Amino acid sequence: MPRRLRLRVGNRSLRQLERREKEMMRDTHRTAGWRRVIKEGQRLAVAVSLAWSTIGTVSAGGIGLYEVGTADVGLASAGYGARAQDASTVLTNPAGMTRLAGTQVLAGAQLLYGDVDFSPGSGTSPGLGSNDGGNPIGWFPGGSFFITQQVSPGLTVGFGTAGNFGLAVKYDSSWAGRYYGQEGTLIGMSLLPSIAYKVNEQLSLGATVNAMFGIMKQQVAINNPGAFGRADGKLEVSDRDWGWGLNLGLLYEVDPATRLGLTWNSQVKLDFSASPDFSGLSPVLAAALASRGAFRANLDLGIYVPQGVMASVFHQVNDQWAILGSVGWQQWSKFGKVDIGITDTRNPASLTTDLDFKDTWHVALGGQYRISQPWLLNFGIAYDSAFQSGDIQSPLLPANSAWRFGVGVQNEIDRSFNWGLSAEYVYGGTLDLQKSGQVPLVLGGRGDVDGAYRSTGALFMAANFNWKF
User: Fold this and answer.
1) What is the pTM of this model?
2) Which contacts of 244-247 are long-range, i.e. CB under 8 A and separated by 24 or more positions?
């Protein structure tokens, strides 16, 4: 039989070249697929970021959130920086990305209902009326998006977008506290490019740049003294700004069943400033404000999204049970938030008032129970201390200390896809509001507001979808 002829080009056989060509084609398809994932991810990230511009939130730990539509909602944030079971670790602890193989994508959707109805008390000035303002929060949507890519066994990169900071409220125009606040929006939306490195089998380190886009808007009614039959005037300020921060994370795996997480988030400065926009003023008040240069003023409304530290733990007790916990601190005393308004329209010397906040503490405990091979049950409870002292200082920030109660499930369809549903109730209790006007209402002051936000709370409902490539 004749021998099979083997054609060589250089030192490679034709068969080797064909095999190499096939491998190159597979690599090309894989790269194209990855580019499609990135492209779709970028589109979804933009969509999620835009959706967050309409969000209103109520929470404890100041006005920071742990809820962004991920499985952490069902855990009430327990084990926040140590869980590292999906791509949301980009936000919670970037060092946890080293535990995620290949490419992983998470999309989270969330719906919030906030209930903070105000009840005017007998100490409220009669001239302010008895309108309770309605529910200033109500229903709002939200969400998040995260993606991680394992570059090598020791190096992983990621990206995420989420809005876990802010508050938005809007009262009826004639509510009793209108001279202290009618409408307020303060929202921070973050873009989170991240990197993580596995130092050894136990220790991983991670870092995230927090590029935060802030939106601020405030509106308050102005008393028009002596202008019988004239409606209230209005003062409004608004601005948008970018701020920058850094999140650092450490993940230490004591053994395959136990890991510890430690995270630090730097403060982010949002340097808001705006010229006041007045409308509906009486001629007398307009002249008084003009004489003091109020129409040409530029108000410094800058704030600091506070820095924070959190320690977390995850321990797999056995094949069915795992326990999770976390303890954290946030520096709300450096927040620097200001209120706008005119204390005395006869002598409008100032348009802003500083608020004095306190640092907050956070503690959470939760668990995971493997119901069956595809089903995992999450549950948790958490507490955040108060960031406002005594009586609520501003009706635009009807939030303080709170308890969180969460429950959720995750279902693993196969190794490449799982989904989950979660719910969490945040109970804020009763918040007193007592504001004393320095000048009587009939003389142009803001009057006295006495009352309470009774049985305040918020309900989060979330769904998350996870892909692995």
Assistant:
1) 0.82
2) 244/209, 244/210, 244/211, 244/212, 244/268, 245/209, 245/210, 245/212, 245/305, 246/207, 246/208, 246/209, 246/210, 247/94, 247/192, 247/207, 247/208, 247/209, 247/210
